[in-house]
Amino acid sequence: MPDTQVAAAPRQLAPHASATTLPARSAATARKPAHKSLGSRWRRFVSPLVLVLLWQAASMAGLISPRTLAAPTTVLASTWELIETGELPYHLLVSLGRVLTGFTIGVTTGAALALAAGLSRLGEEVVDAPMQMLRTMPFLALVPLFILWFGIGETPKIALVALGATFPVYLTLFAGIRGTDPKLAEAAKVFGLDRRGLIRHVILPGALPSALVGLRYALGSAWLSLVIAEQINATAGIGFLINDAREFLRTDVIVVGLVVYALLGLGADALVRLVERRALAWRPGLLKA
Amino acid sequence: MDIHAPAFATHDALRVRNLTRRFGENTVLDALNLDLAPGSFTALLGRSGSGKTTLLRTLAGLDEAPPEARLDLPRPAAVVFQEPRLLPWKKVWQNVMLGLPSSGARRRAEQALTEVGLGHRQDVWPVTLSGGEAQRAALARALVREPRLLLLDEPFAALDALTRIRMHALVLDLWRHHGPTTLIVTHDVDEAVLLADRVLVLDGGRIAADIPVDLPRPRAHADAGFAALRRRLLTELGVDQKEAA
């Protein structure tokens, strides 16, 4: 018989609680130094601003040559110029298209495989072993092979992004499905849910927190893949812009490209956060927020 | 052998014959026979590991009964577990209606929740409920199915003493009002005597004692006969009277 005191926690949330801590170090946050301090919103901006000012001062004093790193003011001017000529929007759209296509393919594949492996024994036996083996390989190492297979056009770039997104989604959704609280599943069974109802009302909602963490990882991974992919003989996209600028020693344009990459990552992360807030409104942490 | 036959839909008496459950070498239920009268309230006592929960799970249909056993079980059955087992991602009223057709669901859920005194909390997330409230919601979820067999698996064990007293009164109320054949599994002798018409003690895989409780309701610890019954049950459970004092 279960002991009185031990069972005193009536919440079934424990399995998911750990997920709340995970998003903090996902995709976009990895790109900027993680400031853990929860001081006022403004204070967080002080040190980056000081750094930029120092950078500007050093550039103006001639300590940093424009060949090494363009001054912030130059970067700003170049940004404006790139926008005005339509260059930046064009390359941005190309990059976004690649990420969107690859990400969609990757998430769909990862989710489909996780559902197959998570919901059936046979599926697990067929799918899980190869996935676990493949995931240990740094997928960016596949670039040479991809070039051989797909040439140097759009296909290898999109494939790389897709691959980057597949594994985080697969792993987290699979773990989420398998982490279903058996007690909840049992109760649902008593109350007349069939297998389909169980999947829809218990297993999938229960796996969602984990899957959303995976989605954020997938975004980060997709972004990284994009950067690498765009180094492969691209003729358009932010990566091309950066590579092209390198040829002409335009450090200002390179910085513009980097900033755009960072902002895109941030934006994507914010989007997933928004989805999380909507979809996981029932979680205790989010109720207070 | 027809174990989960719909035959029990027609009558409310519960009948179990020759139910044996083994886990490895360990025989938990040994050719157990059990009869519960329609609409009766029975408490099942037993030491830890005596097979109380195993029996309840079989009656709930959660565990498959062996083919040689014969079970006539009132249906539908509903279970209230020790933990509320509410789905955290569904509002309280949605939890109550889980697995039921959605037509008029909201209204029926509201009725059931009002009946357990939780009408004002139907639209909140389960995490925001206190332990007692969550267990009330679990009761409402069981009742809304209009069960002919209500199985309670130590439903109040995790609640504080004051909440437990209120829940006892509530359960009796609901039982009187709806009249399902009710079986409560508990390790609390007082709870058994307070609630049930009949107390069974499970030992060695069989019903070792079958003791009627004819104390008038509402019952209190101070009632004549309460202490004697309590002592008798404790003895059946193998508790020394000095230990119990």
Summarize this structure as a short list of keywords or feature phrases.
heterodimer, A: 289 residues, mainly alpha, MetI-like fold, disordered N terminus, B: alpha/beta, Rossmann fold, 6-stranded mixed β-sheet, 8 helices, 9 strands
Quick description:
With 289 residues, chain A is an all-alpha fold.
Mean pLDDT of chain B: 88
Q: Which pair has the most extensive contact?
A: A-B, 33 and 38 residues
Q: Could you spell the SSE succession of chain A in H and E letters? A: HHHHHHHHHHHH
As a percent range, the share of strand residues of chain A is: under 5%
Query: What is the number of domains of chain B?
Result: 2
* Count of helix runs of chain B: 8
Widest β-sheet, arrangement of strands of chain B: 5-6-7-3-8-9
User: Main beta sheet of chain B, described?
Assistant: 6 strands, mixed
Report how far apart the termini of chain A are: 38 Å
- CATH H level of the largest domain in chain B: which superfamily? P-loop containing nucleotide triphosphate hydrolases
Give the total of beta strands of chain A.
0
Q: Report the strand count of chain B.
A: 9
Unreliable sequence segments of chain B = 1-10
Largest sheet of chain A: none
What does this structure look like?
The complex is a heterodimer of chains A (289) and B (245). Chain A is an all-alpha fold and 289 residues long. Chain A has a single domain (68-288), classed as MetI-like fold. Helices cover 71% and strands 0% of the residues of chain A. Chain B folds into two domains: 6-76 and 148-244, Rossmann fold (3-Layer(aba) Sandwich); 88-145. Helices cover 32% and strands 23% of the residues of chain B. Chain B has helices spanning 52-60, 92-96, 105-115, 131-143, 161-178, 189-195, 226-236, 241-244; strands at residues 14-23, 26-36, 41-46, 70-72, 77-80, 149-153, 181-185, 198-203, 206-212. Chain B is globular. Chain B starts with 13 loop residues before the first strand and ends with a helix. Chain A binds chain B through residues 1-2, 4, 7-13, 16, 183-184, 186-193, 197, 201-202, 205-206, 208, 280-284, 287, and chain B through 48-49, 52-53, 60-62, 76-79, 81-90, 98-100, 125-129, 131, 134-135, 141, 145, 154, 157-158, 187.
